[in-house]
Target: Polysaccharide export protein
Amino acid sequence: MGPVQHRALSRKRLAVMGGALMFLAGCNALPNSGPTESQINHAQQNPKKNAVGYGIVQISLDLITLLDSEGPPSFSSLDADNVPVAPGKNDTVGPGDILQVSIYEVGSSLFSANSATMLASSASGTNTLPSSASSSTLPPVVVDGSGNILVPFAGQIHVTGMTAHQVADAILARLKQKSQSPQVLVRIASDIANSVMVYGGVRMPSRIPLTPNREHILDVIALAGGVDHTTQADEDYMIRLVRNGHIAEMPLKVIENEPAQNIAMQPGDRVQVIYHPRTFSVFGASGKITQTRFSMPTLTMAEAVARVGGPVESRADPNGIYVFRYENADVLRRLGLPVDEKASVAPVVYQLDMMNPSNYFLAQKFMMRDKDLIYIANASSNRFYKFFGLITTVISTAE
Model:
C-alpha cells in the first residue's frame, strides 16, 4: 500500500470513528423492543407518563395468598354457602307444575259415568250399586302462582312443598265424605319447580327437570346435549352458575378434574356454558412476541413465560419480568394503592425479580388470568451491545 492510499484509509477510519462517537452521544436513538426496568419505574412515578395511574407491586408470597383469597368463588364454596339444612329430594310440588290426578272409586262414583246410573237408580227407588270399581283421570291440574290446585268436589288445596303422595292424601281426605272408598294417585306430569335452566354453548338449551337421584352440574350439561367438542376443547369453556343471587364461574375442565366442584343441582339453578378462549400476550425481550391461548384449565406465570421461550439471554433483564393487569379495585386498596372510590377495577403492574432463585417458586404459584400482558424488560446494556455491533459493522465495511 502506497503512502497516499495509507493516508486515505486513515482518514476514512477517522471519519468512521468520529461518526461513531457522534452516534454514541445519541445512543438513545437506537431501536429497542421496549423500556428497561429503570425506565418503567421512572415512568410510574411521572404523572405525565403514568396517565392511567398504575402502581408497581412486587410479587411475593403474601401477594399470591391475597390474590387467591380474592378469586371468584368455587362451586364447592357456593354449594356450602347455600345448601339447605335438609337437602331436598327434588320430588316436591311447586308453582307452575302440572299434575296428573287419577281417582278410583267403588260404588257411587263422582267422576265417571257410573254416577249418572246411581242418580237414576236413586230416583227410581231401586238403589242399585255398581258391581265394579271405576276410575277417572282428571284433565291436567296446574299449580297456580300461590301454590294451590282446584279439584272438583275437593275444592282448593294448597300443595306447595308437598310430595305427589302427600297431594294424593290431601285430595283423598276431601273426597272421603263424598265418595265411597276413593283412592287417589298423583303424578307430576311437568316438573317446573324442581328444574334447572341450562343454556349457552350446549347442543340443546333447555329446562332440565331434577329427580330424586340428585343430578350434578355435569349431569345436567350432558342432558342438555353437552358442549360442542368438534371444534373447541373443554379448556375453552367456562361454566357460570347462578344460585340464589350468587354467581360463580369455573373452567369446565376444572369441574371435570375435581369431583368436589361437580356439585349437586338445586331447583332454580341457572347454568350457562360459555365458549371463552383465554389468552395472554408477551412483549419485550422474549423468545417470541405473541398472543397465546391458555389451552389448559389454569396457567402459572412460569408456564406462560416458558411457552414463549423465556427471556432472551443476550438482551433481557431478568430483574424486570412484569405482568400488566386490570385488577379488582378492592384488592388494590388492600395493597395500599390509591384507587378511585367508584372504580371496580384498576391497572396494576406486578414485578418479579428472576435473579432471585426463590422467586422461581413464586412464579409457579402466581396464576395468570385472561388478557394478562407479560413484559420482559430490556437490559440497560442492550443498547451498548447494539451500538458496539453497529460500530463493528461500519468499520468492517470501511476496510
Summary: The longest strand covers residues 316-328. The chain is about 30% helix and 25% strand.
